[in-house]
Amino acid sequence: MATTGTLQLHRIFSAFLLLLLGLLGHCEEQVPLLLWTHEWTPELSQSAPAAGHIVEQQQLGAYLDKTLNTGPRNVVLFLQDKMSVEDFTLYGGAFGNKLDSIFPNLESALRSSSSSLVLPAVSWPASNAVIGHLQDHLGTSPLYMDPETLSQLRLNASSSALLVFRLPYYIGSDLMSPKEVLSGNDEVIGQVLSIMKTQSVPYTVIYTALRPSREAPPLSMEATLGGGRSLLQARGGYRDRERERERQRKMKQRTGIYAPVEFKEGESTCILLWAKGLSVSILRSGRWEAHDLTPSTFGEGVIPKLHGSSCDKTKARLVLNYENVLGHRNFKLLFALSQRHYKVSARRWFTLDAVELEYDGIKATFNGSRNIYAPAEYSYRCESVTSFRWPLLVPRSSKDPANQWRVSFEDFQIQGFNVSGSEFSYASDCAGFFSPGIWMGLMTTLLMVMVLTYGLHMIMQLHTMDRFDDPKGPAISVPQTE
């Protein structure tokens, strides 16, 4: 009986230990990292870690330091939003049929370089620190580029440069498939490497991601306690996870997190707009009358009317058409955007040139180009875009009909260029560094410093007495004239 009880206790302890190890193992997922150089150098040869080893931040820093100390200091970093080693096994022709591979440019670059390093399992906190590590080691700030901007840049082999190319990764039934997105990313890599070859300077390339694209299935309590084997299908396969993501997406839509307004030119999306609230107000008889446009623009089953919208490489125009708004039968809300290259920053920027209201043949125009702008490959986001309270939109002139109107966009986000799939790119936020909380902290610190300075000044003005009273002797007489 004692032996049976001890065995049962041992099984329970073992099950608990396995469960704890499983939970710890799934707290941190891994991403792959590929590194190679344009010109082979014997000193750059590095041995990859053993199979199954997870490369942490300190070890990854050692790999990068050795490469940068002995190799080229012009670094090209391809930073993908999400990526896992399964992306290469599924779409890289890993089962013998190389014709199915969607990474021809990446494979060609690795084959042509004898100095390469492939790390299949890097902890994603370590991959997130790659930019900061490279920036500190090279002593230069990262330049976020695209192939078009890179073709106008001239590199120097004697100076360091950190060129960062952000690559998307989308997944879902209503978006581009992962295979299509990864194939497009491989084409971008091929374009960048072709341009770099024309620069005639040696360079180092790093390809990694910020997050894993696939999460490992959770370790179930039943499977752990049972101690037996389980099939992969029984624990939830790839398609089951996709159905779960789709179900969660629909639940979010029902709770108010809806999809953005999407305008397509042909088969590709070129303009995206999202806001938690869109409202306009007009001044009538000394009183502001407001109208909420959000229910007619966003939400499940809502199809906004976008006729009149257009887009190309330099200009984008999104037109939202409404009916019966504040007494106007036909009402239009128009967003006009443009992008161009700025020589000072050596990159392209886009601006929201104007927000226009068209009604009954009248046009009210708000200028937004001074305050609403972002890099061309980013989207623009702001918690509040209004024309009356800390205005980012101002009437074009003092006589413009826009002076009788107010527009308010809550949690506003827009992108009119370089849209991939049906999701926004990395957002450039309008929030400045000096927020009200920071100003309050600075003012409080300044006040305390002033009080401390005044106190030190008063203490330094104190003087020691030059006369002292002796209780055994006669009292000190102080003349009144002194």
How many strand elements? 20
Low-confidence stretches: 1-10, 12-27, 218-236
- Which percent bin holds the helix content? 25-40%
The radius of gyration computed from the alpha-carbon positions, rounded to a whole number of angstroms, is 32 Å
Q: Estimate what percentage of residues fall within beta strands.
A: 25-35%
Structure description:
Helix 2 runs parallel beside helix 6 and helix 4 crosses helix 8. The protein is flat. With 482 residues, the chain is an alpha+beta fold. Strands 7, 8, 9, 10, 17, 19 and 20 form a seven-stranded mixed beta sheet that branches. Strands 11, 12, 13, 14, 15, 16 and 18 form a seven-stranded antiparallel beta sheet that branches.
Write the layout of secondary structure elements.
Blueprint: H1 2-26, E1 30-37, H2 57-70, E2 74-82, H3 85-91, H4 104-112, E3 116-123, H5 124-128, H6 130-138, E4 142-144, H7 147-150, E5 161-167, H8 178-199, E6 204-211, H9 221-226, H10 238-254, E7 261-265, E8 268-274, E9 277-284, E10 287-292, E11 310-311, E12 315-325, E13 328-342, E14 347-359, E15 362-367, E16 373-375, E17 379-386, E18 394-395, E19 405-415, E20 427-429, H11 436-460
Parallel strand pairs: 2-5, 2-6, 4-5, 17-20
Antiparallel strand pairs: 1-3, 1-6, 7-8, 8-19, 9-10, 9-19, 11-12, 12-13, 13-14, 14-15, 14-16, 15-18, 17-19
Helix pairs in contact: 2-6, 4-8
